[in-house]
Amino acid sequence: MLHILITGASGYVGRNFIRLSKQKYQIHTFSLQKESLENLDLSNLDVILHCAALVHQTQPYPQDVYNHINRDYPYELASKAKRAGVKQFVFLSTIAVYGESETFLTEDTPCKPFTPYGKSKLEAEQKLRSLEDENFTVSIIRPPMIYGKNAPGNIQTLIKLIKKAPLLPFGDIRNKRTFVYIDNLIQMIDTIIEQKASGTFLAGDTTPLSTSTLIQLIAEAMDKKIILFKLPFLSIFLQKLKPSLYQKLYTNLEIDNRKTLKTLQFKNPYSPIEGIKLMITYKS
């Protein structure tokens, strides 16, 4: 049984990895906020899964704060792990490393991060790769927006909106956006650990969804009848006044990760329809 240290174990990915893998691995946890890296004992560990991060904040922090938490901490941890004989460092990165102008992503799409968060994550990837050798494997995973039971962020906002409003002005939106169901992501992480796979891997559900389809699937899973209609000029209004919201609702962000799937010989266990239904109906 492998001994795995998880940072950010109280976060969404960390606690779901524990939920699905606690019978398979000997799991240890570490909090960068509460514990000292200097006093951390890494002996007898096989793998570190680094999920801890400072993500997008409503009140933005300076770039150096993002760099300290998202770039310097994982590099210091990985360096110490390598010296202690840990064999693999798995780093949870983000598709934010690609920037905000790309609408179709592959593993080989050039990285042009726009936000402090994306920049710090890309620099962390680069520093971590410099540590890799035949005795120390570095595995980098770039997920899109993660959904699932109690997932933080925009999906929960959407669920609350669907619960309250039988009429929504999001009809006939035909964009394509790739998300990843949490259990699909955890299974990919597990596969990367099992195979001790080196490289950069792009996570994502097999099929992209439009905003209209996503809302319909959530409503169906909730057994709630809704009517979607098209409101003239809403997209123009949002594009001018709420560009970030417009981007999430109307633009494309499609992922083609066939290279990752082929390399790992991996297949997502759940389709988006199954993942959305489980997000609504799953009881822990």
Outline:
The chain contains ten helices and twelve strands.
Structure explained in plain terms:
The protein is of the alpha/beta class. The protein has a domain at 3-142: Rossmann fold. The protein is 40% helix and 14% strand. The protein has ten helices and twelve strands. The strands form four sheets. Strands 2-1-3-4-6-10 form a six-stranded parallel β-sheet, with helices on both faces. Helix 1 links the parallel strand 1 (3-7) and strand 2. Helix 6 crosses helix 10 (272-281). The model has no long low-confidence stretch (mean pLDDT 94).
Write the layout of secondary structure elements.
Layout: E1 3-7, H1 12-21, E2 26-30, E3 47-50, H2 63-84, E4 88-92, E5 104-105, H3 116-129, E6 137-142, E7 146-147, H4 154-164, E8 167-168, E9 180-181, H5 182-195, E10 199-202, H6 211-221, E11 227-228, H7 234-241, H8 243-250, E12 254-255, H9 258-264, H10 272-281
Parallel strand pairs: 1-2, 1-3, 3-4, 4-6, 5-12, 6-10, 7-9, 8-11
Helix pairs in contact: 1-5, 2-3, 6-10, 7-8
- Pick out the low-confidence regions: none
Mean model confidence by pLDDT: 94
What does the radius of gyration come to?
A: 19 Å
Number of strands: 12
The CATH homologous superfamily of the domain at 3-142: NAD(P)-binding Rossmann-like Domain
**Sheet bearing the most strands, described?**
6 strands, parallel
Structural class: alpha/beta
